[in-house]
Automatic annotation (TrEMBL):
Catalysed transformations (reactions): DNA(n) + a 2'-deoxyribonucleoside 5'-triphosphate = DNA(n+1) + diphosphate
PANTHER family according to UniProt: DNA POLYMERASE ETA (PTHR45873)
Stored InterPro entries: DNA/RNA_pol_sf, DNA_pol_Y-fam_lit_finger_sf, DNA_polymerase_eta, Rev_trsase/Diguanyl_cyclase, UmuC
Name of protein: DNA polymerase eta
A Gene Ontology cellular-component term: replication fork
UniProt keyword terms in alphabetical order: DNA damage, DNA repair, Magnesium, Metal-binding, Nucleotidyltransferase, Nucleus, Transferase
PROSITE patterns tied to this protein: UMUC (PS50173)
Source organism per UniProt: Ladona fulva
Known cofactor(s): Mn(2+); Mg(2+)
Taxonomy of the source species: Eukaryota, Metazoa, Ecdysozoa, Arthropoda, Hexapoda
Amino acid sequence: MSSRVVALVDMDCFYVQVEERLNPEYKGKPAAVVQYNTWKGGGIIAVNYEARDRGVTRFMRGDEAKEKCPEIHLISVKEVRGKADLTKYRDAGQEVLDVMCKFCKCIQRASVDEAYLDLTDEVNKRLAEEKNPGDILTSISLPNTFVVGYAEDGNNDEDKRSKGTAEWLKTLWDPDADSQSTRLVIGAAIVEEMRAAIYEETTFRCSAGISGNKVLSKLACGLHKPNRQTILPHSSVPELFSRLPVRKVRSLGGKLGASLVEELGCKVMADLANFSESELHQRFEEKTGSYLYNLARGIEDDPVVPRLVAKSVGCCKNFSGRSALCTKADVAFWLKELASEVGERLEKDMAE
Ligand code: TTP
């Protein structure tokens, strides 16, 4: 079992929240952000939860969203130099990171609105400060936390949440209870404080998952969105994996996951646990086989690598159909535009 405490924090419907802060009249009403709104009302890239409740999804065009939900606000991404300008969303993501940095030293930015945090040191520090570590379970309150195994996935009913979480906390009083769970409680308390500070300082809401590794925290984070956090204790992994489709796991969305489903017949993660390590070594190379064997048991050791700026900076624009570039001059023009944007963003990253 991991001795680490890892959290994944993911902003809720992030681009819409950024727009709602700029235009408070959208708050509490269905809204979505669309890109390139020339064809069928534009492609939706973010949908708030009010619009999701009315059946709008990210895979619709703006026109279809309007049909589903006529009162929806469709907000277009600003264009600069003829392409989407995402600066305000990136800057907002940076504001959130600045708050996170007050709570944790080891943060890995994973995308514009998502970051992994290794809270092990912070948890150890709080444990060391406690004169009687047993008191932690009585002094800590987790008013916003669900626990896998003590809540129904996707159900954010407050009464059920508080009963389930209290029931789990009670099990930790048992002298045989694993100490890792107590560490997850402390990690969750830090994340509760951090999410409250993010809201206080930026007005943005987010969700989080807390567990012993990145894969489990990512899974947990999605179970009670929006504006909630979820602990995944190691003991609840078998129950979660008994219903979790293989392709939902972070590293199994691509070819590797497809071969597990198609060749090994694994529908859910628990099916993968039926294969021995040597069987997996035979089917995959040794490193991948062992990785899968451990993953099926909720074990993964990918470290949180401290990194606050994006690993790479890219910039692209599609020229499909009638907008295809036909002359060398057009290609040269757009190459220069895209290169300038990359240059500006690199300079900005360097300054930060
Ligand atoms: P996500 O975190 O995937 O989604 P989200 O924050 O909108 O909603 P959720 O509450 O379900 O996490 O994406 C973060 C932002 O990235 C999103 O607000 C808009 C942008 N984005 C795109 O520009 N293109 C895409 O295809 C996706 C998925 C997201």
